[in-house]
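dude i think i finally got it to work??
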Amino acid sequence: MDKIAAIFHSKKSIIWLVVLFILCNSLAVYQELYWFCALPIVAAILVVLFTRFDKYILLISFLTPLSVNLENLNLGFGMSLPTEPLLIIGVFLIFLKIISGYKVDQRIFYHPISIFLIVNLGWIFLTSITSVRPEVSFKFLISRLWFVVPLFFWAIIIFKKRENIFKYSWLYALSLMIVILYTIINHASYGFEDKPAHWVMQPFMKDHTSYGALIAFFIPFTFIQAFRNSSRNLWLRIGICTVLFVFIVGLIFSYTRAAWVSVVVAIVSWVLIEFKVKVRNLMLMGFGVLVVLFSFQNEILQKLEKNKQDSSEDFAEHVQSISNVASDASNLERLNRWSCAIKMFAEKPILGWGPGTYMFEYAPFQESGDLTIISTNFGDMGNAHSEYLGPLSESGFLGMLTFISLVVIILYRGIRLYYRLSGPLKYQMLSIVLGLITYLAHGFLNNFLDTDKASIPFWGFAAMIVAIDLYHKDGTTIASMKSTTE
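look at this
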């Protein structure tokens, strides 16, 4: 590995490589082999890969919003290019580094968040063995590993350098802003109508739900950066405020009701965090809400059934449609998927049907009375629309419990660190926690952790919490990264 790096650091070697490429490329063009022209891009990625792995992870963060899923192009299989191939290569590189003698800080694996994640992965592995479709479940497990290994465990090492925490967040946000601008321009050509809002973000995003979820994810970061940035550079502050404005416009015109709700949840959470409301009190409040909902469930259902407002391009009507469980097809289909997930759990409560198998198995559990105009008898319309009911049906009660325990410990450690930190890192921690809260609130209504778009910021933010807890909570920064990232 060091010999390869030495080659790229040698100016004479680089000159000879450039000359060699020019000669070979001239010959290739003469032979009409135009793909050879793309080799410099591949070579540049490989140079970064072998010499500066921290830059490689940051590159993945930037490329993720701009990645294109081949499934969206109707090519018969799904893989996001270029991020997922880069992640797979990254996993192999990490493996090579470790077997070549690289010493990983063992504290990373003993951190509570890491322990809960390993337990969750272990349960996914076990239920993959007992799965009704082992080939699907092990594919699910492998894809989860190529997200978690480089973007959580290795990212913790990358985030030893404090500025990488901010770079990772900003690179994703700026790349996402490009997608938002593309979507707004595309949407404007259709007069910002409701129906085109479902697909104008293609090919970068599959639909408006994932698009809205990711904008909501980064609203806290852009907002806090805009109003808590201590820079005296006027143009920089104007630039950050512009980014925030673009995100707010993108969120509004995404017509994603779940994303709007998740931002409100984040705002309420921010108030609770600032007032340092104890977890015990929150649990009592939550229990009280459940008691009220259970006591007046019939009255509440009757009230909801009177709401006939469907989704609309009128924002007031669109907000009103959030509680429409009488005629709104999207809401009714979501209830149908949840009902199927619960029925699947009831049939296999311990080990579930197997990770990733919901979309292949839920069709027989649909009741005729639950079907909507967007339902299919074949059950080929995707997942459970819940980050919590999905694991419940696929990996049983412990599958859901291990995931919920993981997200609880992530938020708990993040909030505790927020109270202890000071300066820019304190507000970065707040944006991390609130960003995760928007996604986890959205997770009650949709699930996207099997995609690169959501996994890369989610696991990256979780890694930031661990890195700050291990290396930066006392306010110090590790100055040299040469021994840890190269």
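Strands lie at 68-69, 80-81.
im so relieved honestly
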